[in-house]
Design a protein that fits this description.
alpha+beta; single chain; four-stranded antiparallel β-sheet; 2 helices
Length: 102
């Protein structure tokens, strides 16, 4: 009887980490998307970090950088080719460019 309890306890303890791993997500649950496809959600990027990420992507003359209520950063910018674009950055740091004009 004691041996059966010990084996049962060992099995239960051995399975606990696997069950825990199944219930604990490793990635945040994505939020809904905007009409343009950006993921909305709590944004942890500061204004300086958002600007730097856009600059690292080659954008320059970044202006009117604002964080929307949906957690998406929005700004106007110039591409390396000199085209005017609207750029967005979601809470995951993904950039989207729109309206490339000469």
């Amino acid at each position: 009887m004691i041996r059966a309890l010990a084996v049962g306890l060992a099995v239960a303890i051995g399975m606990a980490p696997a069950a825990w791993a199944q219930r604990t997500p490793t990635d945040p649950v994505p939020g809904p998307t905007t009409a343009q496809g950006e993921r909305t959600g709590a944004n942890s990027f500061t204004e300086d970090q958002a600007r730097r990420r856009m600059e690292e992507a080659g954008l320059r003359s970044i202006h009117n950088l604002q964080l929307g209520d949906d957690g998406v950063w929005r700004a106007g910018a110039l591409t390396p080719e000199g085209r005017t674009v609207q750029v967005t950055m979601d809470y995951q740091g993904s950039l989207t460019l729109r309206g490339a004009q000469q």
